[in-house]
Specification:
Elements lengths: L5 H11 L4 E5 L2 E4 H17 L7 E5 L5 H11 L3 E4 L6 H10 L4 E5 L3 H5 L8 E5 L6 E2 H6 L15 E7 L7 E6 H14 L7 E4 L6 H13 L2 E4 L5 H11 L3 E4 L1 H8 L14 E5 L5 H11 L2 E8 L4 E6 L19 E2 L4 E5 L13 E6 L6 E2 L3 H7 L12 E10 L2 E7 L4 E3 L2 E3 L1 H9 L4 E11 L3 E10 L7 H9 L10 E4 L13 H9 L8
Parallel strand pairs: 1-11, 3-4, 3-5, 4-8, 5-6, 6-7, 10-11, 10-12, 12-13, 13-14, 25-26
Antiparallel strand pairs: 1-2, 8-9, 9-19, 14-15, 15-16, 17-18, 18-20, 20-21, 22-23, 24-25
Helix pairs in contact: 1-2, 2-3, 7-8, 10-11
Amino acid sequence: MAIDVLADVLRTHANERPDKDALVFGDRRITYGDLAEESAQVAQALLAAGVAPQQHVAVLDKNAPEYFTFLFGAAMVNAITLAVNWRLAPPEMEYILNNAEARVLLVGEAFLGHLEKMKLETVETVIVLGEGGGHQPYADWIAAHEPVDPKLPSGPDDTCYQLYTSGTTGLPKGVELTNRNLLGAMAAGVDSWSFDRDSISLVAMPLFHIAGSGWAIVGFVAGGTNVLMREVDPAEILRLVPEHRVTNALFVPAVLQALIGMPNASDCDFSTVRSIVYGASPITEAVLVGAMQAFGCGFAQVYGLTETSGAISVLAPEDHDPGGPRAELLRSAGKPWGDVALRIVDAETGRDLPDGEVGEIWIRTRQNMLGYWKNEQATNEVFPEGRDASGLGWFRSGDAGYLKEGYLFIHDRVKDMIVSGGENVYPAEIENVLMAHPAIADAAVIGIPSDKWGETVKAIVVPAAGSDVSDRELIDYCRERLAHYKCPTSVDRAEALPRNPSGKILKTELREPYWKGQSRRVH
C-alpha cells in the first residue's frame, strides 16, 4: 500500500504486521492491530459527534497512548488534529481552541481545572481521559462504536495536523501541516536516523511539540515500536533504555545535560542505542562531548521549525568529531536532507549571498507548511515569492546563518524569538503582559545564555515614575498570565530602552553585554 496520507501509515502496518507492538506505555503493550481497531472506534465516534472533513479536533493532556488513537482516528475521517500545549495558561489554551474552531476536545482529567476557566466557542463535545468534570470518559465514548475504519477520502494536500507557534504580534499562529508535509519529513527521518522495522524508539518529548509527535510518527512510518513516556524523567529514561533495548531516542540538550548529571548514568546500558538525535535549542560542547562519552552511540544534530514539519537538516554521526580536524562542524546544523534546498538571502535586498556570508535562511521543501491558519497575511510574508504549480515555494525561516561547503551554520535570529529548553518563546507576548502592569513604563524581553536551557528569559524594564515593584512581583505577575517557561527568570532596570528612529527597540544592543564572548548566538 502506498503511504500518501497519515491514516495509511497505521493501515499499512496493521495489515502487514498486526501482532507487532506499535506502542508501549508503562505496563500496556498495544499492537498495530489493536491501535488500528481503537483508532477506528475513535473515527466512528468523531463522525457520530458531527465532525466533518477538515474540521479540527483537539487533544489537551500529557503524553498518553490515546493521543495516537485520536490522531489516527481523526485522520481516518480526514479531520485535523490540534495538539494543545499543556504547559500554557488557561487563557492561552482558550485562544488556541477558539481560533482553531475545534469541535471535539479530548482532555486529561488533570486539566479539568484549566477547562473550567475557559470559555470555548466551538467545542461541542468534551471527552475525558480518566474521570470527573461531568464529561463522558474516553473509554465509554469509544465503546459505543464498532472498530470499522470509515476510510473517508483524503489526499496528500489535505491538512492533517496543526500545531501553534507564537507570533511576534503576541498571538499564536496555527501551523497547518498537510499529509505531504508531514510524511515527507517522516520519510527523511527514517532514512537519516537509523530507523527500520526493528527500531525501538523512546518518545520522551511532549507530543504537542513536533520534536515529540513527529519523532513518534517516524517510528510508526518505519513500522517499529514506540516506547512512550508520560513526561520527561531522567531517572525513568535510564531505566527504560536497557529494559526495552531502545535503539533510537531524541532529546533536547537540557535533557542530555540532566542525564549525564545523574549519579548512575555511567551504569546505564546504552549498547542497543543506534543514535541519539538532539536539537531545538543551543548545546554546549561540554554537554555534547559528555553525552557522547557517556552513551557511546552515534549522535545526530537537527535544525528545523514547526513550519517545516520539523527537521530540514542533519549533522550526521560521522560529522561529530570533538577535538579532531573537523571539530568546527559541531557548530554546524549539518546538511539539508530529503528534498530540502537552502538559500542564504539578504533580507533587505532579496539578493542571494555566497558561502560564508550571513543572511536569512530560506527553505524550499515539500515539508513546508500549507500556511498559517486563517492568517493569509502572515502566510504571504513567509512565502514572499509565492509558490509554483506544484505548491513549492521558498519559506523565510526568520533565522540567520551561512553555508560553508554544504553545511549550514546558524548565526543569529532574524526574529527576536528565544529558544529555552527546546521551547520557542516570543518576547512580544511577555512584553505585552509586562506593559499591562501599572508599575512599568517600558519593557523589553531578551534571551540570555543559560548553561542548562541554552537561553533563558530576561526582562529589562523602565519603572513608572514613583513606582516600586520587586523582581519577584513582576515574575509572579507574568506567571499568573503566561506559561511558566515563557516568564522572565531575571529582571534588570534601565532609565530608558535604546530605540531606532522609527521607535523599534534595539534588541541587538540590549543582548550584546550578555552574549559578549559567546561563540554562537543561537542554535
